[in-house]
Every structure is written in C-alpha cells, then in structure tokens.
Amino acid sequence: MAEVGKGVNAGKLASNVQKRITRAQEKVLQKLGKADETKDTAFEEEVAKFNKQLADGSKLQKDFKAYLAAVKTMHECSKRLHDCLAEMYDPEWFGKEEVDSIAEDTDLLWQDFHQNLVDNALISMDTYLAQFPDIKARIAKRERKLVDFDSARHHFTSIQKSKKKDEAKIAKAEEDLGRAQKVFEEINYDLQEELPTLWNSRVGLYVNTFQSVAGLEEKFHRDMGKLNLNLSDIMTKLDEQRLNEAPTVTNGSSDAELPPSVLYKVKAIHDYGATDSDELDLKAGDIVLVLAFANPDEQDDGWLMGVKESHWLQNKNLLAKGVFPENFTQKL
C-alpha cells in the first residue's frame, strides 16, 4: 500500500510540474504575440476594484488599531493622574470620598469605551477583511485556469490544422479543451457573482465603523464631561475651604500693632502684575493693609489703596503704598 501511495504522489507531482511548464510556455508565447490571449476587461476592472478595496480596508484596520492603542495609552495616563491626586489628597480635605469615587468612575469609563470600540467596530472590521485571502487565492487560480484554457484551445486548434489527421489525438485535445473550459468557467462564474457584491459591502463597513466610533465617542465625552465638572466643583470648594481656614495673623503681626490709618487687612488670592507705577504687584498669599484714599474722588470702583504687610513689618512705614484690584483679594 505504501508503494502505491508513493506512486500516486509521484504521478501527481509530475502532473503539476507539467502544468506549470505548459503555463509558462503559453504565457511566453502570449507575450511574444505568437498566441492570442483571452481577455475580459470587465473582470479585470472588478479585480482592480478588489485590490483597491483590500488596500483601503487594510489601511482602515491598521489606523483603527493605532487609534485603539492611543485610547489605551490615554486610559493608562488618566489612571496614573487620578491615582496621583488620590495619594496627595488629605483625608480632611473637602470631598475626599467624592474624589476617590470620580477616579474609579473615570477608570471604568475608559475601560468601557475601549471595549465597546473593539466589540462594535474592530470585530466587524476583522470579519470583513477575513474574506479577502480566500477570494484573492481564487482570483489567482482563475488566472492559472485561464492560461490552461488558452493553452488547451491553442493545442486543439494546432492539431485540427495538422496535415496528418489523428482522430484520437483530436478527440483527446477536444476533451482536454472541454475540461479546461469547464474548470475555468466554474471559478469565473463564482467570482463574477461575488466581486461586485463584495465591492458594494465596503459601504456598510464604513457606515458601521464610523457611526460606532462617533456614537461611542459622543457618549464617552458626555459622561467624562460630567465627571470632570464634578471634579472641578470639588476643587473650587477645596479652594474655598483653604481660604476660609487661612490664619488672619501673619508673621506675628496683630491688629493692635497696626497704625490707626489701616482700615482692615486683605489677602491676595490671585497673582496680580502691576501695570502702572501707582499699582501694587501682588502674589497669591500676600497680606495687604488697606488704607483710605487721601482724596475719595480719586478712588475707582473695585480698586483699593494699601501697602503690603511685609513692608510695614520691615520698615514700620506706609510709604510703599499703591492701588490694587479688590476682586484679587479676600478680606481677613
């Protein structure tokens, strides 16, 4: 049995080698113009569209996977950022539990976003592209079978034109031609049916992909926006807590030590860069002793006159006075 198997395999190998030689000879003759070649312009156009469709789909898949990788990277960076905030956030600060909860919800939101992109876009894209290798292989096979058909057709014609008629050879050549034509036409018919349908299916892929991405991005950013708004509100209240708990006595100076011309003290809550020589330059945290204007008519709405407490403590005078915006400070 083993010897029989070897013989069958050897015979099949020899047959395949002979087919390749015959095809090679046929293609050489066609290129030299010594043998006509069966052409199908419409099918060649379908193949060109197939190749373009495959290239476009592969590029879309590659770019989408890069997009997914970027989403994953953003998720990791976001998680590290929120973990950093959670570690630095003192337990007695306002909204500690809410900050931890926002970090957890943000992490879950990123996870869901990435997984939904995979489920709703990547999987269908992979399924779509999985069709192409088999069809590409059958297109290549059709080309080989077309060469076989042309070769059988030329061989049959050659034998028919031979001066010495050999009916057995003619019958054998005709039989080979019929077999080659049948094999070619079967694969050709299937591809003629499939390629236009496949070409039209690309629209569905693009619609599904970009509708899914657009919808998932919109929902993700909407939900993330709510979490960010909550976090921003907590930070605002934390800043208010800080200002409310700030001490009203700085560097050992008490109200009893201040000159009687001082009306009250304020604390700068924002930096302010002086834009004129009569203005004070302030840094957040500076304490300012508020003074009355020598001429009340010179006071503009929203502006105060004062001198930095640090200057008073060092020099015990109020000469370095200037104006500053009231809304950059908080009264102590």
Automatic annotation (TrEMBL):
Primary location: cytoplasm
A cellular-component GO term for this protein: synaptic vesicle
Keyword Cytoplasm appears in the UniProt entry: yes
Subcellular locations according to the entry: Cytoplasm
All copies of domain BAR, residue ranges: 28-251
InterPro entries attached to this UniProt entry: AH/BAR_dom_sf, Amphiphysin, BAR_dom, SH3-like_dom_sf, SH3_domain
Residue ranges constituting the SH3 domain according to the UniProt record: 261-332
UniProt KW keywords: Cytoplasm, SH3 domain
Gene Ontology molecular function terms on file: phospholipid binding; tau protein binding
Protein name: Myc box-dependent-interacting protein 1-like
Organism: Sinocyclocheilus anshuiensis
Biological classification of the source: Eukaryota, Metazoa, Chordata, Craniata, Vertebrata
